Amino acid sequence: MYIGIDVGGTCTDAVMLSNGKVHSTAKISNTPNDLLSSLLQALDAVMQGVSADEVERVVLSTTMITNLIVERKYDPVGVIIMPGPGRKLQQYCNADVHIISGAIDYRGREIIPVNENEVLEVIKKLERRGYTKVAVVGKFSTRNNRHEIKVSDIIKKYKPDWHVEMGHKAGGQLNFPRRIDTTVLTCATKEKYHYFVQSVKEALKRRNIKAQVFIMKADGGTMTLESSEQAPVETIFSGPAASTLGAQALTASGDTSLVVDIGGTTTDLALILSGKPLLSTKGVMVGDKLTQVRTLAVKSVPVGGDSVVEIVGKELIIYSERMGQPYCLGGPFPTPTDALNVMGLTKLGDREKAWKAMKMLGESAGMSPLETARNIINLVVDTVAKEIENMFLEWEQEPAYRIWEVMQKRKMRPQNVVGVGGGAAGFVPQIAVRIGGTPVLPPYASVANAIGAAVAKPTLQVTMRADTEQSIFSIEEEGYQGKINQAPFGFDEALNLAKKWLIDKAKRMNIADQVQDIEITRQEVFNIVRDFKTTGKIYDVCVQTPRGIQWHIGAGGKLI
After folding, report:
1. pLDDT at 409
2. What is the Cα–Cα distance from 435 to 414, expressed in whole angstroms?
3. CA gap 490, 537 in Å, rounded
4. Where do the structural domains in the chain lie, given as residue ranges?
C-alpha cells in the first residue's frame, strides 16, 4: 500500500494505492494553524480497514513554500556576501545586502581573509533594522566553505538565537547570483517548513506508520523528508510537480497535454510531451530571479478558487492572496468559488451564501448576482489563458520542446487541456475553449496531486566533487571526503565513482530496484593551471536515479 498526500493552501488531499489502483481518497479542508489535525483526518480517511503495517511508502507534496513565496509571506532576511574582486552584487536579490571582505578563488584557496570587525559592524546594522535571519554567501564557497562558516560562527557567537543560512549548503552549484537568491529563500522559509516536517512526523507517529517517507521535489523526483528540511526550496514547486505526475498517471501513456491545476490559492501550469513532463533548462524562477533549484517547466499563477475578489469603482479585481475559506463556506470575502456556486458549476458550500456574496459585491456597480459571478469567472479564465500564452512562449524555447516539434514533423501545440484540482470542473472547460484546446477531466481529477505523489518513483541524488591535483573527492550528501586511488582519473572515472555511491545509497534504503538508467543532472569540469600548465582538473558531477511514475491509474481521461 502506498499513500500520497498533498498539503495545499486550502485542502489536504490523500490517496491510498493498492497494486497500482486507487483504494481510497480523501479531501480535507485545512484547519487554520493546525496542520497536524488536517493530516490526521486525511490519514484516517484513506486508511479505513487498513493496518499501519501494510503501508510501504508515504510520499508528500506541498504548495506551502510556493504559496509563501507567491503571497510574499516569507520572513525578511539580511544578506552578507563575499564577492571578492570584481563586480558587486547588491542588485541581484531583493534583500538588505552587505558586502564584507573575504575571497576564495575558483580552486578554493583563500586570497583575502575575512575581517571580523566588518562582520561585527554588519551585525549591529542588521540588529538595528530588526533582522533575526541572515544569509551568508561567498562567491566560491562551493570550492571552500571556510569563510561562510567563519562568518556564521561570529554571528552565532554574538547572536546565538539568530538563524543563519550558508550558501554552500543551500546551493551547491557555481553561479553566485542564483546561489544568493537560493540561500535567501532557504533562510526565509526554513522555520515554517520545519513546522510542516514536524507535523508530518507527528501524524505518522500517532498512526503507527513506520514506512519510508519522501517528499516531491520541483523536478518530479523525491527526497527523504529528513533531507528536505535542509533544503526546503527544493519543494518550491513540489505541488505543481505532483499535479503534473498526477495528470500523467491519469491519462493515457504517451499523451501530450497541457496541465492546468486549479487549487484554492494558485493555478499551476505544466506541459507533458508524448508522456514525459517537460523539464526546464533553467532553475526555478521566483519573481524575476532564477534559483539553483532544478524544476519541471511549470508556473504558479497567483489566482485560485479562494482568491479574494473586490470591486473598485465598477471594476472587479482578483487579489493574489487567500484570506480564508470562500464566503459560501463561512469565509470573510467573496471568491471565484462563490461565483462557480452561483453559476451552478460547483456544489461546494451554501448556495444562498454564495448568492449573497455576489449580490454584495455587484450591488455598487449595478450588476446582478448572476452577472457578477459570470464576470468573475471570465476574469479568472482570462487571467489563466493569458499566462498559458506567456508560458507557451517560454516552453517553445526549451530544447526538449523543439526536439518534440521536430519529431512531430510540424509546428504545433498540445491540444488536450487536462484539468486537475478542486476548481478544474468549473474553469478548465472554458479555459480550453479560450485557447482553442480540448478539455479533459480525468477520473480522480480533484485529488490528482496526491495521486502524483503516490505514483512518483523514489529518487536519490549524489553530488561528487573531485580534485585530481590534490587526489581527493567529496560526497556532498554524505559529508564524506576520501582519496582518489586510481590513475588516470578523468570524467568517466568521476562519473563511475558518483554512480557507485548512488547505487550503494539505494541499497541502504532498500530501493536498489529503482536504479536503472542513472540520470546526470549536473556535470562541470575545470582545469587547474599553474605556471601556464594544466596540473589537474576539478570535476563536479551530480547523478540521480530516474524520475517518473510507477503506474498509470487510468487508461485515459474523459473527453468533455
Report:
1. 61
2. 11
3. 8
4. 2-70+209-242, 78-192, 461-544
Name the superfamily (CATH) of residues 2-70+209-242: 2-keto-3-deoxy-galactonokinase, substrate binding domain (3.30.420.300)
71-80, 84-93, 264-273, 514-523: least confident range? 84-93
Type of residue at 171: G
Q: Which residues contact 533 (CB under 8 A, 6 or more apart)?
A: none
Packing angle, helices 146-158 and 116-128, rounded to 10: 50
What is the separation, in whole angstroms, between the first and last Cα of the chain?
Answer: 32
Report residue 308 CA to chain centroid gap: 24
Distance CA 237, CA 66 (A): 6
pLDDT of residue 348: 83
Other Cβ atoms closer than 10 A to 481: 10
Q: Cell triple for residue 460?
A: 536519490
DSSP 16-72: EEETTEEEEEEEEEPPTT-HHHHHHHHHHHH-TT--GGG--EEEEEE-HHHHHHHTT
Kindly state the cell numbers that stand for 544: 540521480
Residue 3 has pLDDT above 90, yes or no: yes
For residue 71, give the C-alpha cell: 503571497
Backbone angles phi, psi at 104, to 5 degrees: -115, 140
Peptide bond into 240 cis (omega under 30): no
Please tell me the distance from the alpha carbon of residue 229 to that of residue 186, in angstroms, as a whole number: 10
- Average the pLDDT over each of 1-15, 31-45, 294-308, 398-412 and give the range with the smallest value: 398-412
| Angstrom distance (rounded) from CA 236 to CA 220 | 12
DSSP codes of every residue in 387-410: HHHHHHHHHTTSHHHHHHHHHHTS
Is 40:206 a contact under the CB 8 Å cutoff?
A: yes
State the Cα–Cα distance between residues 292 and 169, nearest whole angstrom. 12
Instruction: Supply the pLDDT for residue 20.
Output: 84
Write down the mean pLDDT value for the chain.
Answer: 86
What share of the chain in percent tops pLDDT 90?
A: 43
Query: Whole-model pTM?
Result: 0.82
The per-residue pLDDT for range 383-396, each reduced to its tens digit, is 999 999 988 888 88
pLDDT higher than threshold 60 for residue 448? yes
* pLDDT score at 379: 94
Long-range pairs for 230-234: beta carbons < 8 A, 24 or more residues apart: 230/169, 231/169, 231/170, 231/186, 232/65, 232/186, 232/189, 232/190, 232/193, 233/65, 233/170, 233/182, 233/185, 233/186, 233/189, 233/284, 233/291, 233/293, 234/293
78-192 is a CATH 3.30.420 domain? no
Q: Residue with C-alpha cell 491519462? A: 251
